[in-house]
């Protein structure tokens, strides 16, 4: 007996159990009452078990039949979920897409993708919140949250976006006016431009093959805004420690160069978090796909 041979009978049997009526089950399924009766009998023969007892007044489900029904119910539920997924897949995205993202990463990496997404989906509107404070998808009523972390998110429903590498950058004229930097050990003689923190010194990690170095450097200029740090580095205030995506435009324009590019520094990862309910709207699904495609470089 093939396992698939029973699927049609399982659907009919489940509907009979739910309605306790061959007539009602036949009506719901669009079948003749005689077809329902024959299919139940054939199913019982194939299983070698009595699933229903039928009198002139009512239908009763046997103990074996009730246990079997629970298996049928789970299978049918999955079938319905699969059908719903396909319907959603083909639906046109509509409604408001509520997104929260870190300020700088959001401006430079998320907004360009959002602009293209809005242009391609005329029935979708976007509500973007750029903030560096911790957020909750459920409590703050967002569809998606973009986060940057060292470790995997504790959230159950997430997708990876891109790695965020860090490096040190300086203006070409600054480097020409100072002694050549050939090793991380040379950095202690320089002033640094850093994201604002509680201390004026920071230990920078460097890795190259089997070598590992932690170099303590002093900041002369600190700020909580990456654009300010980039502008300060261009103005030759010192060497800036920055995520590569923040420095890339200035590097492309020749205003900054990466110092010690052969040494690896911090690597963070970005993720997009989605609500944990089973329903994912077309606008959310399509935008997540667009984000992954744009930021992974595929």
TrEMBL record:
GO terms for molecular function: DNA-binding transcription factor activity; sequence-specific DNA binding. Keywords: DNA-binding, Transcription, Transcription regulation. The keyword Transferase does not apply. InterPro entries: LysR-type_TF_proteobact-type (IPR058163), LysR_HTH_N (IPR000847), LysR_subst-bd (IPR005119), WH-like_DNA-bd_sf (IPR036388), WH_DNA-bd_sf (IPR036390). Residues 5-62 form the HTH lysR-type domain. One of its GO terms (biological process) is DNA-templated transcription. Belongs to the LysR transcriptional regulatory family. This is LysR family transcriptional regulator. It comes from Pantoea coffeiphila.
